[in-house]
Design goal:
By secondary structure, this protein is an all-alpha fold. It has a domain of 71 residues: EF-hand (Recoverin, domain 1, Orthogonal Bundle), CATH 1.10.238. The chain contains 11 helices and 2 strands, in the order ααααααααβααβα. A two-stranded antiparallel sheet has the order 1-2. 9% of the residues are buried. The N terminus and C terminus are likely disordered.
Length: 218
C-alpha cells in the first residue's frame, strides 16, 4: 500500500511538470511509436529518426504517422510545409490528449502490481462507481452524481457535528470549533449568533469557489 501511495505522488509530480503521453489503454491517446522513451516521456530526436524517411532533418505531412497528419498545420508554425525539430519540440502539446481528472484511474491501475492491497484499491474504486449507478443501466447520470455528492456531504457533516458538538445541542460554538471550522468561524456563522448550525455548515461545505465555472451559494 505504501508503494502505491508513493507511486501516485511521484506520477502526479511528473504530470504537473509537463506534457506526457496518455496512460496505456486511453482511447484518446495518440498512436504508440518507437519515439516513446517511457510511459511518461516523449523523445523528439527518436521521433525524428523513426519518421524522417529522407533524412533531411524535417518531417513532411506524409512522413508523420497517419493519425497525426490532421495536426500537421498546428505543428508547422512557419507554414513552410515541413516540421523542424524546434517546431516539433514546441508543438508536443498538440500530440498529447488533454489531461483529465479521470486519468488518475490509469495511474492507480499502473501502480497495482505490488500486493493484494493494490488490487483492493482498484476494486474499491470500481465498487464506488457501481454504487453511483443506482438505476443499474451501466451509466452515471448527473442526478446520480448529485445524489452521491449530497450523501457524502451529509456524512461529513454528521462526522463534524459528532466530533465538535460536545454538548449535543445541535450547534457548534466558538469554543467547540476546531481546525478549519474555527479558522473560518465568522464566515460560516452567517447570522452572527455566535454559533454554527447545520444549515450554515452545509452552506459552507457546498459553496463553490469563485471562478469555478459554476455559480456558488452565498
Amino acid at each position: 500500500m505504501a508503494r502505491v501511495l508513493l507511486g501516485l505522488v511521484a506520477v502526479l509530480g511528473l504530470l504537473n511538470r509537463g506534457p506526457t503521453l496518455a496512460a496505456p489503454g486511453d482511447p484518446k491517446a495518440p498512436p504508440k511509436t518507437s519515439s516513446t522513451a517511457g510511459p511518461l516521456t516523449f523523445n523528439v530526436d527518436a521521433f525524428l529518426r523513426d519518421h524522417d524517411k529522407n533524412k533531411d532533418g524535417y518531417l513532411t505531412r506524409d512522413e508523420l504517422p497517419a493519425d497525426l497528419r490532421p495536426r500537421f498545420s498546428q505543428l508547422d508554425t512557419n507554414k513552410d510545409g515541413k516540421i523542424s525539430r524546434e517546431e516539433l519540440q514546441k508543438g508536443i502539446l498538440h500530440l498529447q490528449p488533454r489531461r483529465r481528472a479521470s486519468d488518475l484511474v490509469f495511474v492507480l491501475i499502473e501502480m497495482s502490481d505490488c500486493d493484494a492491497d493494490c488490487q483492493g484499491e482498484v476494486q474499491r474504486a470500481y465498487d464506488i462507481l457501481r454504487k453511483l449507478d443506482t438505476n443499474k443501466n451501466g451509466k452515471i447520470d448527473p442526478h446520480e452524481l448529485k445524489a452521491m455528492r449530497e450523501e457524502l456531504v451529509q456524512r461529513r457533516l454528521d462526522h463534524l457535528f459528532k466530533q465538535l458538538d460536545t454538548n449535543k445541542d445541535g450547534r457548534i460554538s466558538r469554543d467547540e470549533a476546531r481546525g478549519q471550522v474555527r479558522e473560518d468561524f465568522d464566515k460560516i456563522d452567517r447570522n452572527k449568533d455566535g454559533s454554527i448550525d447545520r444549515d450554515e455548515l452545509l452552506r459552507a461545505a457546498t459553496r463553490r469557489p469563485m471562478g469555478s465555472g459554476t455559480p456558488g451559494r452565498r
